[in-house]
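pinging the channel bc i need a second pair of eyes. not urgent but kinda urgent?? the chain im working w is below, pasted from the shared doc
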Amino acid sequence: MNKFINAAIEILTDVKKPLHYKEIIKLALDKGILETDGATPESSMNSQIITQIKKKGAASDFIKTAPSTYSLNAAKKSIAPEKIKKIIEEEAIQEAKEKIGSGYTISHAD
């Protein structure tokens, strides 16, 4: 699972109330739950949460409670195994793209 998603779940579990994405990232960085060298960690956090809500719908870990404010989804539904596989594959592709975009390089052995 994505490091931003994991951090958001941990923070929201600890505080037990909805938080704005900027507060989620601030707490995650301050507590050392998340480390990033990215220039815009706030945007990354918001993007990751929104993307999960859009992809998973009722099975998302999060719900939007107000503009840019999220809580854990207490009514989270389960996802069919074949859909889980597809989501995992899409997340792996997205993480690879983020690493490439962040200055990491990927070399291919010939």
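so The helical segments are 3-15, 21-30, 41-56, 81-101. and The longest helix spans residues 81-101. — does that match what u expected or am i reading it wrong
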